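Support request from a user on the community tier.

User writes: "When I paste my structure tokens into the form, the page sometimes reloads and wipes my input. The last time it worked, I copied everything first. Here is what I submitted, just in case something in the input itself triggers the reload:"
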């Protein structure tokens, strides 16, 4: 087995949340008379947490603290009520996680999604398959700062050298590397192979099935 633990990003890696995120963005934009966005456009806005997403879809000339706070509140309320309308795990995810767990690998989730939104989604779609689940917590820097990832490793009781971070964006690659982990890029996610390669991902997987084989014995990828 190549690694003792795998830590996963959530949006664009384990769950395809893009439809619900786009709907929430466009709900806020529609209420305020702002331009709306396609799923592809939103896919390139996410990755740095909800507050940053709200900032990015708010027209630049309107980005006052008051406007951003109001838009964040609107987004959080709507998304909290509709976060599972169109969201679904990527194909093969449940099976791949079961294979990794059966081989003795510890698993965790680390997301920039607010912790209060992250945990219910993980529980809804994956039950208790993960040893640790952590979203964005107030007072702790968002990814790519390595603070949260290091905390997850301490909870798992695994060193950085024996763990891998799995994600779909340059933010994820930076997060893993900043904490001293190898990073496996999830090509099926929001950003794709080109961004992951450019960011310096150590490994690349085209599917969750390929990922499991790659993390366990290196025969894929």
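"...and here is what came back when it finally went through:"
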């Amino acid at each position: 087995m190549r690694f003792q633990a795998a830590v996963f990003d959530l949006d664009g890696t384990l769950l395809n949340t893009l439809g619900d995120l786009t709907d929430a963005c466009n709900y806020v934009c529609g209420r305020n008379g702002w331009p709306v966005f396609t799923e592809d456009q939103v896919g390139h806005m996410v990755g740095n947490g909800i507050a940053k997403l709200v900032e990015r879809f708010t027209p630049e000339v309107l980005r006052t603290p008051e406007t951003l706070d109001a838009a964040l509140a609107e987004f959080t309320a709507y998304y909290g009520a509709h976060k599972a309308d169109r969201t679904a795990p990527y194909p093969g995810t449940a099976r791949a996680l079961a294979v990794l767990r059966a081989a003795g690998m510890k698993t965790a989730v680390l997301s920039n999604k607010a912790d209060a939104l992250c945990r219910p989604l993980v529980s809804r779609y994956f039950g208790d398959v993960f040893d640790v689940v952590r979203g964005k917590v107030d007072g702790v820097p968002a990814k790519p700062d390595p603070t949260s990832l290091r905390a997850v490793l301490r909870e798992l009781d695994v060193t950085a050298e024996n763990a891998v971070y799995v994600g779909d964006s340059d933010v994820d690659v930076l997060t893993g590397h900043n904490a001293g982990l190898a990073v496996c890029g999830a090509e099926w996610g929001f950003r794709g192979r080109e961004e992951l390669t450019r960011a310096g991902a150590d490994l690349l997987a085209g599917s969750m099935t390929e990922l499991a084989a790659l993390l366990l014995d290196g025969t894929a990828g």
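Agent notes: The reload is a front-end session timeout and is unrelated to the input. The chain has a mean pLDDT of 95. The longest strand covers residues 106-114. Escalated to web team.
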